[in-house]
Amino acid sequence: TAAAGPIAFVSLSAPQLARRLTRAPGPNLAASALMGAVLLLAADWVATNAFGDRELPVGVVTGVLGGCYLLWLLVTERKAGRI
């Protein structure tokens, strides 16, 4: 976990994104697993290809993207009065 700790953000954000995309009322395991795989593949691609010769650890990319998404989700849920 020391090398790949921020990848845990995928497990927090993937079910929320999958539920919003499928508009399902509850959690959907298959959609969440697929969304997690897509998020991790996209983060890995960004980490290896987005900055030219410099390669970032995938944990940095997932931490930044996951953290930003969870903050956005928290703010929008609070504005909607659900929190």
Question: Could you describe the 3D structure shown?
Answer:
The chain has 83 residues and is mostly helical. It has helices spanning 8-22, 29-49, 58-79. The longest helix is centred in the last third of the chain and has 22 residues, at 58-79. It is built from three helices and no strands. The termini are far apart. α1 packs across α2 (29-49) and α2 crosses α3 (58-79). The chain has one domain.
How are the elements arranged and paired?
Blueprint lengths: L7 H15 L6 H21 L8 H22 L4
Helix pairs in contact: 1-2, 1-3, 2-3
Total helical elements: 3
Query: Which structural class is indicated by helix and strand composition?
Result: mainly alpha
Instruction: Indicate the overall shape.
Output: globular
- The percentage helix is 55-70%
For the biggest sheet, the summary is: none
Mean pLDDT: 83
Strand content: under 5%
Number of strands: 0
Low-confidence regions: none
For the terminal residues, how far apart are their CA atoms? Answer: 31 Å
Radius of gyration: 14 Å
Number of domains: 1
